[in-house]
Amino acid sequence: MHEGCGIVGVALDEGDAALPIFYALYALQHRGQESAGIAVSNEESDEDIPLMKGMGFVHEVFSPHRLESLKGNIGIGHVRYSTTGASRAENAEPLVVDYHKGQIAIAHNGNLVNAAELKRELQREGRIFHSDTDTEVIAHLLAKELVRHDPIEAIKVLMRQVVGSYSLVILMRNSLIAIRDPLGIKPLCFGTLSDDKGFKGYIVASESSAIDTIGGDLIRDVRPGEVLIIHNPDSGREVESYQLYRGINTAHCVFEYIYFARPDSVLDGRLVYDVRLKIGERLAEEHGVEADIVSPVPDSGITFAIGYAKRSGLDYMEGFIKNRYVGRTFIMPDESYRDTAVRLKLNVVKRNVEGKRVVLVDDSIVRGTTSRRIVTFLKKKGAKEVHLRIGSPPIIAPCYLGINTPTRDELLASNRSMEEIRKFLNADSIGYLSLQGLIDSIGISMNNLCLGCLNERYPVEIPGEVCVARQLKLSHF
């Protein structure tokens, strides 16, 4: 499973915003590795918004020389993993579009379920599209409304039109705007930057770890349905908050807590590390087994395994060492080379597992092919037994709201029994965290989480799927 993107917005009192945006994007690299981009604006200039983006990791796209050429004290940044639109340069973000007063730049994390319908309507009106992302749909809709309305009223209309998940940072000539969808599906937070850290101003980011990276202080999460406008009037920079929509319930993505977010990030008031530790402890309570050691699949299974070992009383020991210098997975011509690709990333520590009954802990299983190889590697290196423990319930349905998941036919747990899954994975036993165990570990009620991939009940209308939107009726403010 892959996240859609990471977004950043920075507004400095003085100096260039490109460098702190670069550092913040580096901290969010785990959310997307296909492309990266930065757009900046100088509040005192009427020139077009400078934009620089490209395919690859953050450090591959931006050299020191290229960063120095981006002059402007406010800006936005983006790292991408495609969930809609192909992996190509035209789809890299931020996107810049013209409107009647100049230009706007926009970066998006999420996925619109009605993007195709909205795009057809815009094309009938004569609007030209240069990418196949839903971000460009949002940009055109906003530019259209800005002709008739002030920014807040235009955003209000935009939020009535789009359906799905979206956290947005928008750059206008003299303003940085942050928007979180009314259900709060995707994370977004903001904080301050202070003099003693080298930058002074405000920052908005997908995760608090990006704020920490550049020495900022987290203020709070952007609330679901809230719009923040950060600008610099004569009296000094300030943040204006507009609670445009408010839901009876939220629908925070559970996989932010299970896998996507960094463990050192704080999401909606919860440290992700603590949640994963609780998941591991609950997993031990629900699926204890006689064994000798607990070992994680690095890196995603580490915190779960620590919690499991703590509660079970078993020794925590690394069965695998991860090669952290392996980048993108590359295409392998046949099955034997695919095994080599996994071994390039994970190598078994034979002495730690030989003759041992191993509890192997991972965050989730999607297709199951890599998990099967990992279990097989342990047994080939002498593990006596391998008991697989998974820190999420079975993934039985696709995500339509910003995660790149396979179809139901490709998901291992969609149409198989637990015994069939165990046999496929070559494990001696398998135990998934229960849905209630996950909810209890996160500490957010079921009605305030998006659980669609786990229970096939989605928080927005999706053709052919069961919707629980009746619990999420929105009230306009």
How would you portray this structure in words?
This protein is of the alpha+beta class and 477 residues long. The chain has two domains: 2-251, Glutamine Phosphoribosylpyrophosphate, subunit 1, domain 1 (4-Layer Sandwich), CATH 3.60.20; 268-444, Rossmann fold (3-Layer(aba) Sandwich). The strands form nine sheets. The protein has a seven-stranded antiparallel β-sheet. α5 (134-146) packs across α6 (151-161). The longest helix has 15 residues, at 272-286. The model is unreliable at 329-333 (pLDDT under 50).
What would you say about this model in short?
With 477 residues, the protein is an alpha+beta fold.
Q: Identify the CATH homologous superfamily of the largest domain.
A: Aminohydrolase, N-terminal nucleophile (Ntn) domain
Please give the largest β-sheet.
7 strands, antiparallel
Radius of gyration from CA coordinates: 23 Å
Q: How far from one another are the termini?
A: 36 Å
Number of domains: 2
Top keywords for this entry?
seven-stranded antiparallel sheet, six-stranded antiparallel sheet, single chain, Glutamine Phosphoribosylpyrophosphate, subunit 1, domain 1, 477 residues, Rossmann fold, alpha+beta, 16 helices
Provide the fold topology:
Elements: E1 2-3, E2 5-12, H1 18-27, E3 35-41, E4 51-55, H2 58-61, H3 64-68, E5 74-80, E6 95-99, E7 102-112, H4 115-124, H5 134-146, H6 151-161, E8 164-172, E9 175-180, E10 189-193, E11 201-205, H7 208-213, E12 217-221, E13 226-231, E14 238-243, E15 245-247, E16 252-253, H8 254-260, E17 266-267, E18 270-271, H9 272-286, E19 293-296, H10 302-312, E20 315-316, E21 320-322, H11 335-345, E22 346-348, H12 350-353, E23 357-362, H13 369-380, E24 385-390, E25 403-404, H14 418-425, E26 429-432, H15 435-442, E27 449-450, H16 452-455, E28 457-458, E29 466-467, E30 474-476
Parallel strand pairs: 16-27, 19-20, 19-23, 23-24, 24-26, 28-29
Antiparallel strand pairs: 1-25, 2-5, 2-11, 3-4, 3-5, 6-7, 7-8, 8-9, 9-13, 10-11, 10-12, 13-14, 15-30, 17-18, 21-22
Helix pairs in contact: 4-5, 5-6, 9-10, 9-15
